[in-house]
Fold Polysaccharide deacetylase family protein.
Amino acid sequence: MLSTVRSSLLLGALSASMALQAQDYLPILQYHHVSESSPKSTSVTPAQFTEHMDYLVSAGFQVVDLKSALDDLKANKALPEKAVAITFDDAYRNIYQAGFPILKARDFPFTVFINTYPVERKSRSFLTWEQMQEMQAAGGVFANHTINHPYMLRKEAGETDEVWFARMVQEVDTVEALLIKHLGESPKMLAYPYGESDRQIRTMMKDRGIMAFGQQSGVVSADSDFENLPRFPASGVYANLSTLKTKLNAKPMPLLKEKNGGDYAGDQPVSVRLTFKEGKYRFKDLACYVAGQGKAKLDWVSDTEVVAMAEKPFNVGRGRINCTMPDNTGAQYYWYSHVWIRSSPDQGYVSEKS
C-alpha cells in the first residue's frame, strides 16, 4: 500500500514537472533565401543560417513540425518546452542547395510555402517537384503560397469584385491540388504573399480549413487568429543572432481583446487599443513602436487598457505598430504586432467593406 502511495506521489510530481516544462505558445521563424548572392533584404547566408541552427541546438530549443504544433495549440495541448518552428517563403532552389543540408544534418523539420508558377515553368531558380519529394522524405513540408504570388487585395484593371475574388480562389485552390498531385498531401496552410489579407480572404481560408500567415511579428497561441498568424522574420536586417534570441524567447502578449481599426490605414494616424488579461504584469515597462516614427504615445484609459497611437499617418505601403513588455522574470518579452495597408487609388485595392 505504501509503495502504491509513493508511486502515485512520484507520478504526480513527474506530471507536475512536465506541466511546468510544457509550452502553450510557439515562435515561428520566417526565411526566404539561403544564399550569398540573393537580395540581402530577404536572405541569410549559409554561414548565418548555420549560426541560427547551431544556436537552436546549443540553447536547447526543440524544433517542431509546424502543422502538428498548430493543431496542438488549437486543441489546447501543450507543446514541448522551448518549441520553435522553421519556415521559408517562396520556392527558391537555394533552400534545397544551401538550407536543406543544414536542416537535414540536425534532423530539423521545416515548412516551405511555395508559389507554383515558376515551379511548373521549371525555372532554374526555383525548386523542382523531385527536390521537394526528397526534402519531404527528410521532414520537409510544403504548403500554399498561391500560384503567382499576387497582392491578394489588388484588383487587376477592369476587374469587378466578383472576378477578383474568383481569381483569388483559383490562386489558392490550384496550389492545393498541385500539392496533392505531386506530394500526396496538403498541410492546409498558406502564407499570404506580402502578408496581405482582409476579412473576405481570411473567411475563404477558414471555409477551406486552411491556417494562414501574415507578415506581422509575434508568437502563436491558442488565442491567435488562425487565419492571420504571426511569424518572426529572420533574414536580412533581422538575421542578427542577438536580436533573434530575443524573439525566440518571446511570449504572446496577454490580451483579452484588441481594437485596431481594421486592415487599412487612411490619411489619419493609426492607433490600437489593447485590453489585458487579469494578472500581475509590468505595465510600466510596456513600449510600443510605430514603423518609421519611433515610440508610440501610450494613453492608459484604465489599469488594464491602453491606447497606442502613431503621431503621423503612414506613407503608402504597409505600416505597423509593435509592442513589447518584459515578463516578471525580465528574461522574456511579451510581443504584439499589427500591420496596416495604406493604399493609393492607382493600386486597385478592394474596398475594406468587403
In short: Residues 1-20 have pLDDT under 50 and may be disordered. The chain has two domains: 20-250, 256-347. The first helix runs from residue 2 to 21.
